[in-house]
Amino acid sequence: MQATTTRRTGSHKADPITLGLIRNYLSSVADEMANTVIRTAYSTIVRDCMDFSTALCDKNGQTVAQGVTIPVHLGSVPTALGHTIKRFEGNIHPGDVFIMNDPFQGGIHIPDIFVFKPVFHENRLMGYSTAVSHHLDLGGRVPGSAACDNTEIFHDGLRIPPLKLYDRGVPSEAIFQLLEKNIRVPVQTLGDLRSNLSALRTGEKGLLSLAERYGLDDLEMYFAELLDYTEAMVRAEIRSWPDGEYTFTDYLDDDGVDAGEIAIEVKMTVEDDCLTVDFTGTSPQVKGGINSPYAFTISCCGYAVRSIMQADIPNTSGLFRPIRIIAPAGTILNPVMPAASGMRGVVGFRLADALFGALAKIVPHKIPAAGEGGNSLIIIGGYNRERKPFIMFDLIAGTWGARPNKDGIDGLTNPGSVISNIPVELMELDYPVRVEQYALTKDTGGAGKYRGGLAIARDWRYVGDGPANLTIRSDRREHTPYGLYGGHNGAPSWNIVNPGAEEERTLRTMVTDTLQPGDVIRHIQPGAGGWGEPLERDIESVEQDVLNDKVSIAKAEELYGVVIDDEKLTADRERTERERSARRSEAGQAQRSANGGVRR
Amino acid sequence: MRLGIDIGGTFTDIVYVGDDGEVATRKVLSSPDDYSRSIRESLPGMFDERAVSGAALREVIHGTTVATNAILEQRGANTALITTKGFRDVLELRRIRMPELYNWHWDKPPDLVERRLRFEVPERINAHGGVLTPLDHDAAASVIDQIASLGVESIAICLINSYVNPAHEELLARMIAERHPRISVSVSSEILREVKEYERTATTVVNAYVAPIVGRYVDSLSQSLRDLNVRAPLMIMQSNGGVMTARESSRRPVYMIESGPAAGVIAAHDLVSRQGIPNAITLDMGGTTAKASIIEDGALSTAAEYEVGSSLSLVSRLIKGGGHLIRVPAIDVAEVGAGGGSIAWLDEGQALNIGPHSAGASPGPVCYDQGGTETTNTDANLVLGYINPEGLVGGGLQLDRSKAQQCVERQIAAPLGMSLLEAAYGIHLLANSNMTRAVRAVSTERGRDVRNFALIAFGGAGPLHACEMGLALGMKEAVIPPYPGLFSAFGLLSADIEHHYVQTYFKKTREADLEQLNATINRIEKHIVGLLTSQGFSENEIDLHCYADMRYSGQSYELTIPVGSTRLSSDAIGRLEDAYDAEHEKTYGHKGGEGEDYTFVNFRLIGRVARKSSTVAPSQNGFKPRQAGRRQAYFGPDHGLVDTAVLSRGDLEADPREGPLLIDEYDSTTVVPPGCSAWVDAHGNIRIGLRAP
User: Among A329, A317, A323, A239, which residue's Cα sits nearest to residue A284?
Assistant: First the structure.
């Protein structure tokens, strides 16, 4: 079919050039979808932080292209769409748009609403245009919906099973009305939803123009080829790893409700070109709202494994074919009713940290030490004097662990979540806050041959006219980001109200609290882990860090054995060599194993 | 008599146009150690040849990559930054986002101002312009003296909320001028008076970083011209396609970073205006990159921000972060790594890729036989029979066809199990598909349907790829201007004198105070008119255009709406709201909900002085017919190898001639595939009707 509009694809055999063309085209369409969202969204979390994702799927719901958006969202699209397709099998029509967020039916937490548009070419289903955004608020217990001390799904807000938001082009008044009446800031949330629907149309147009150019039969073959090609490249990568079992355990400090650490235990088994990721032994689900829905667990596994592979593998569902994931039901990585999961991001990031820890034993030359451990959320919300709601939703990210051949990057998003920051000047125009600091913090990066990234600090002064609700999600105060191969751990995170003032108080890592007008809340993220022995760091790099005020003179000597002349701010080479050789002989092997992380 | 000088990384192009319309051109190698040298050395010969003196020149317009190169090669001034207490790291933290998925090897570009040279002063202004903490004079003085003691040549000042109240920035600038008058100062509220601290800081820092270098360059070039008895003022093309005086360019060099690429688009804009082509995509394909821009309803498209110094850039916000952000108006040019010298390679999955690495001018493509070993796009085009095997630039550069065949065969065809021609054709198509990304970035990403646009292709490699790429995008016409390789230098002669100013006015439209708004616009208007009159233009020559950046309240991105007059009447705001709805719908496919609020973000004013002399179009003169030849050329599996007519531009007539055709010229070859047909218009442009066979 479509012979008249098909050029140069007479044969039904995939040729690598056409495959490349289609792949390029799909990626640029997915990026166009994302641009549509950014430019038309209303909430800071979507438009400035860019906490949303876009993807294109084939008719079976398999991802064939991703926008340059959040990796930990993207791997969940096939699961979420899969549940939706199953629910509506035989009842999928042109003009339909599906909506869902239910974490127990393929969703990844209440605030992330998926929308899917089936795309039909000449009345034949050819694929899905998909988008997911983190919405500012979906009702529930606290402004912003998610809170670590939510203890059941019903606290998290409005739960949407797979539904038709549009039925053959007709909008569902019922759903729109229900949404509007159950959320705190409908203008923003509905505006964001419109921006997502607009992106779906962009994706639909892109898919249709491909069908017109290549014909649907050929196109379906190329979609299949793209998935196979990804699978083949992933298998080739896994085959290059040594067979065996590799374990690692990382921890969260607590869940914001009960005291006590939470273990993420992983065993990775490499067998020829297959990988099994087994989380048996991981902590049971918790009361606090940080449980990771199964779809999110899968997505985070996909992100961790994908991120250490070469950059030019197409980002499709083919990634998951050689990977088997075992997450026992009832654990924090596959919770059952009525687990709350609004703040599950932190568990997803820890899961990835655990996987990287195990991977560091498989492919040590590829794995960085632990980064900040996921972005921190600070939500200040309430009502002003006129009873108008405001929700300031800030995401603080991130800093990189040291890599096996270079330093971690100071102040850069975790690659699992390529979000952006909110400009201070916009925040001060939009919300009753004043930002008094946004900076890197000296001496917080884990020491090592390669230094871990420095922690980011931000101070907000609340300047509204009544008490406001404060929600914080952070972690890594007790269990700091690990260093690797002798590198030290990064510094712990902190939440401090009114720092330096008489009424200064330190808050827990996961907390819901109240701010009075004039209060300052300071959040300092964790620093990232270092890689390799600090005594092996070259002296010039330590000098540069001191000059740039990233490492203090005292710490240069204490951690790196580099003696800095405090007048000239240069290293005293002679004393440094003496200091370093003395320490090497006395410390030897003992220090190496004491630093946690992975042993050789 | 007018002179256009376009200095690029490899070549310096000079175009001379006499009062009689006579055209003379020079293409000489650039001299990166002292860019003005190549001009000093070539101009006397050109003047002698025409028997004219420098004094007879009325205009000298210059496009340059000096500022871009200073950034790319990290050879800018030793620069310091002064910021508000608590915000030392705004520059380094950027917008925090990495622009790629899944890449642990990625790095931020090195900061133009290292942390040790970023200093804080105690002061604070709130979001509405009120002073919360007055500037601490003593602390500021000591910071300034400390900076001076570090041998800093240039200082950028960017304080939080200075866009609404610049008093503290201005005070700091005065203090520096008093205490250390030799240090160059760039003030954020003067460079870019706009909300968002990172964008304003980054832009001001780039300005500070290149200001001393551009200042010296412009001085040296002006002196060289004076030595040649040239009295016409030196004008520099800005990134937005307007020109400014050399003096202004050394104060605000951040406005001329993309001077070079802008010239090509300006030339294309001039061409389409003359031909009455309302909608066009420009494609400037050189040795290393291809640059695309869009002309719609006869108007250039400008971008509010872009990045310099990333290896390659696209307009897409999604992949920003690889370079240094500059938020000044620029012609919206998307650039990808697909040029003549781009290298073709196979990845581990045996998929074919091309670029972004380029063999450049040295060692160059394999067929140049100057030491190149990796297959390039040019090698593929030679194998396909597209490029004249007798050599480029009229035989000045010999090509070795058998070497090209060997490398394509060995490196691409054999591993893929394809024939030589299929592989070469694959490389050609893949280069097209990469360029397609640049074209899409400036068109479909903004909702524009390229099928209704003509493709204006130039640069050395543009005419080779124009037709196939246009066809792949569903376009209907390609236009190849005369002198495609020197086209950008012609563009310099088509530019207007132009100054842009922006002022943030952040208010909901229904809360806007008309009087205050008019006062704001009036203030920028006075500033621009003052600037232009001080440059010797009279007030009645100045054309003013006013624009409003608007959004729905709550959105973060603006669309720019023409205001029409610099004095708003009472019904103007309602009309702007309607215009915004229409533009939003056109761009994104939907408009706001009922009872939607609108917000003004910025007002922009452009002061323009139209160029005095009429446009110079290279005419058909000089394109002489020559003996037609034939060459075997490959046009894909459907057509195979075709015995193809080879002609010159002068052989074409006003009646379309059916492809396949190859049109060889001094600096390029135009490929007209089967099914397409070519003719030449009254201005010497090759016009090609694109039709899939």
Answer: A329
